[in-house]
Amino acid sequence: MKIKKNKIVITGGYLKGRMIKTINHPLVRPTTNIGRQILFNWLNKIIINTDCLDCFAGSGVLSFEAISRKAYYITLLENNLFIFKQLLYNKANLSVKLVDIIYTNTLKWLSNTNKKFDIVFIDPPFKSNLINKTINIINKRNILSSFSLIYIESEIQTNIEVPTTWILYKQKLTKNIAYRLYYKNN
Question: What is the CATH number of domain 5-184?
Answer without folding.
Answer: 3.40.50.150
